[in-house]
Amino acid sequence: MKVTVFGFVAFAVVVLVAARGAFEFLKKLAEESSAQPPSLPPAQPRRARRARANAAKPAPEPEPEPAAPVAAPAAHLDASSLQVTRPARARSRAQFFGRFALRQAIVAREVLGPPLSLRPPRF
Length: 123
Prior knowledge:
Elements: H1 5-34, H2 53-56, H3 101-112
């Protein structure tokens, strides 16, 4: 196979251009990998609560109302039927007593998550 001088020069130019392009690509790739990641945008400030319109003006003081008469208990309820405390036989649930109560509370916390008052706000 005979190669002309013009064909050899053209092939050499193509190889040199391809090698230079590959070198530039590898150089660019190395610079991007060593560069720091882009910084995050600044956090938006939290919105302040708006002042209520009715909070700006003081509310007028209400006139004192006459004392209401004390309501008497119903006639069918006497002092013995007005029981505030529970009797000794009414016990709370047995599942919250004993050796495994703490374990059960921990499992419940894992399953249900923290109380709503301790959870972060949802947006």
